[in-house]
Amino acid sequence: MIYRDNLITELKSYFGNDNKRINHALTVLKFAESILERESGNSDTVIPAAILHDIGIKESEKKYNSSAGNYQEIEGPPIARNILHKFNLEDNAVNEICDIIAHHHTPDVIDILNFNVIWDADLITNLIEEGITVDKKKIDRIFKTDEGKKIAEKELLKKEK
Ligand SMILES: [Fe+2]
Question: Does the predicted model carry a pTM greater than 0.70?
Answer without folding.
Answer: yes
